[in-house]
Amino acid sequence: MKNLDLKDRKILYELDLDSRQSFRSIGKKVGLSKDTVASRVKSLVEEGIIQNFYTVIDAYKLGYISIRFYLTFQYTNPEIEKEIIDYFIQNKNIYWVASIEGRFDLAIILWVKNIHDFYRFWEKTLEKYRDYFEKQVFSLYIELFHYRSSFLMDERVDRKKFEITGGGSPVKIDDMDCKILQILAPNARLPITEIADKLHTTSIVVKNRIKKLIRLEVIQGFRTKLDFSKLDRDYYKVDIDLKEYSKNEVILSYLKQNPYLIYLDKSVGYADIEVEFVVKNLEHLREIMDDVKLKFPNAIKNYKYFSVKKVYKIQLMPER
Question: Which residue of 130, 185, 273, 300 lies most exposed, with the fewest beta carbons within 10 A?
Answer without folding.
Answer: 130
